[in-house]
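Known limitations

Files may contain more than one protein. Parsers should not assume a single record per file. Below, a two-record file is shown to illustrate correct handling: read the sequence, read the token line, then continue until end of file.
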Amino acid sequence: MLEEHYGIPPIIIIDEYDTPIQQGHMRGFYDKVILFMRNLFSGGLKDNRHLSYGFLTGILCVAKESIFSGLNNLKVNSILDNQYSEYFGFTPEEVKAIARYYHAKEKYAEICAWYDGFRFYDCEISVFIEPYTALQSDAHVYLSSQNGK
């Protein structure tokens, strides 16, 4: 429906795809969650002719077997791959821009104190703030500022 409406095939982004797998393993429903994930990936990614591409994030090592065995052209990128390391998270400049957007630029130091980020030594930009945390903190600051008006 998105392709029909906008005229371009969409992108599917599944963040932390591995969290249900970890929970399934820890709570006794691993086989069920693996079957679900295999069907989700097959129907949503492999057999979806209306899709530009899919993007998965997670911390578990991706094996081209198991739940991924049905996917074609699977490419695994890691934060250890220098080619893409600058794209994992927000740079300090991007977080400052987000804070300005939410009229909370004076809260930048507070945001950084909440989450210190990661360092990728092979990358020109060395400090990254994880996206979820940055957005959560900026949204919190924005909403707090609205309550005071």
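...continuing to the second record:
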Amino acid sequence: MALIKTLRGITPQIGRDCFLADNATVIGDVVMGDECSVWFNTVLRGDVNSIRIGNRVNIQDGTVLHTLYQKSTIEIGDDVSVGHNVTLHGCKIHDLALIGMGAVVMDDAVVGEGALVAAGSVVLSRTQIGPNELWGGAPAKFIKMVDPATSRELNQKIARNYLMYSKWYDE
């Protein structure tokens, strides 16, 4: 069973039909929407500031979400996929975005709707990634625009797939 820990008088709020892997950790000021999945060895650490997660968000294995005390929060929209071993620190991720495996997104960075951050990228603090843009590298730089329909289709498919995978664990 996942570790869901009340801290500083704040208990995480988990939406309906969410999957939390046995060794996922969710601490403090975390509010999660419906049909989300938080996979193995993932930590959502709402100890120093808030973490808000939309609906149908998948946060894959080994990922860490954290913030800066009294300075930054995390906001994640709907139908977002956060790949394996990602670090999100005090940033905003809009609907239908994809954060590739091993990426780092730092404080006050914004990833626009339908945007893609390539695997292994480092998005520096205060970087603004526009809607449907592909960014990659360390530090991350703009690569190209992505067709909005293609981005929407890809990210909704991944979100649906992770919802399906999570149901396998109910068996």
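Parsers that stop after the first record will miss the second one. For reference, the second record is described as follows. The CA atoms of residues 21 and 39 lie 5 Å apart.
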